[in-house]
Amino acid sequence: MAEYDYDLITIGAGSGGVRATRLAGGSGRKVAIVESSRVGGTCVMRGCVPKKLLVYGAHFAEDFEDAKGYGWTIEGARHDWPTLIENKQKELERLEGIYNRILRDNNVELLRGRGTVVDAHTVAVDGKTYTAEKILIAVGGWPTMPDIPGIEHAITSNEALDLPELPKRVTIVGGGYIAVEFAGIFAALGAEVTQIIRKDMILRGFDHSMRAGLQEEMEKKGIKILAETTVRSIEKTESGAYNLRFAGGDEHETDLVMYATGRAPSTSGLGLEEAGVKLNDKGAVVVDDYNKTSVDSIYAIGDVTDRVNLTPVALNEGICFFETVFRDNPRKMDYENIASAVFSQPPIGSVGLTEEEARKRGRIKVFLSRFKPMKYTLSGRDERSVMKLLVDAETDRVVGAHMLGVDAPEIVQGIAIALKCGATKAQFDATVGIHPTAAEEFVTMRDPVPEPDAEHTE
Ligand code: NDP
User: Which Gene Ontology molecular function entries are recorded, alphabetically (predicted)?
Assistant: First the structure.
């Protein structure tokens, strides 16, 4: 062991990298982590956490309106964007402090600077080299934007989280998680939001009923969704606004253009290929079931491997890496039934197969419920929740559960445990509901949707 400076050097102090490295450090290994930006990575500094704080902040707008039906008079409610951003910033500083403390407490040395791989056992950090028995690549991903004229005028979610003020008109390009989440935030806080999607519907890959239901609710909230629209160019106008030109020739003026058109693994310039590490055609690091790359001493976890790009997955991959490499306990991540959420307004919670995927695998029964949440009866809000269970007709196993509506992510987390345990519809039916809740709908859906009327099969 003495022939290397460290047992492990990790490049990238995001969720996955920190988890794996602090476990190794805490178990007595000599470890270091390289980070050029803020400790905490995308999720904590530029993604999930600040985004969710903005979602909370934005939702008060509807809560104030809904309160009226319950007898409240709320006068002079006004939102101050800089206060929200400043308080969010303070919270991120607090979290960064916690992450730094976790590293210190577990004897992880923080090497500040940009790390590159020199060879199978050597990492360079801003010109200085260090050797390690194992190297872990956990550098995550970065937003990508199409190369069109004027794209330099557009921002990504990175900048959207730190805008000095909320523009009057915001245009978001893209139809994925990030686009719908930010459309909801900006619209609730009072901006006129236009969302431009290149296909007919948002959130490709999600269950059709959730996609259609959310698109409808977003439009009800005043978000203008321009479907089947492609932006060809962006120009800055004399007034300081931006003019978008579409493929069909139409134009659209806005005060802010945000692109949320996907993310790519941050492997460029890392020296991986030169060191013999295989990348796929999207630039993601290719790994085996145990997170090992094509070089025996180099491993990779998280978004840089472009498997399932979610923080809890990176954390689990980090734990699997630690168990396999440092505890002689080979452990693979199980990618079945990973629940996820979209923090749109209303949000989506989802686990297992979509109806489209389930139908491809065999005969299924579809249980569907649409209802107005109880909270909105007195407030008069016209918002519908949608719940769906997909059941394998042969085995009675629930293979998918989806919900659009208030608290969907919180509810589906519990349902995910049932799916992980292989629960059947009969077991869902035998579960006594908690009344009155929206969640009880998941255990009271008795009649499948009649086949001819079954939801979209694509
Ligand atoms: P996604 O991959 O989810 O969505 C990208 C969107 O951009 C799609 O709607 C896609 O359209 C569209 N698009 C791609 N290229 C172009 C283009 N050239 N012109 C116009 N539209 C384009 O990416 P996001 O950026 O939203 O999110 C990145 C990742 O971050 C997600 O995959 C997810 O893993 C993670 N994430 C998770 C969250 C959560 O768990 N709540 C929240 C935010 C992010 P089309 O469908 O037509 O291909």
Answer: flavin adenine dinucleotide binding; glutathione-disulfide reductase (NADPH) activity; NADP binding
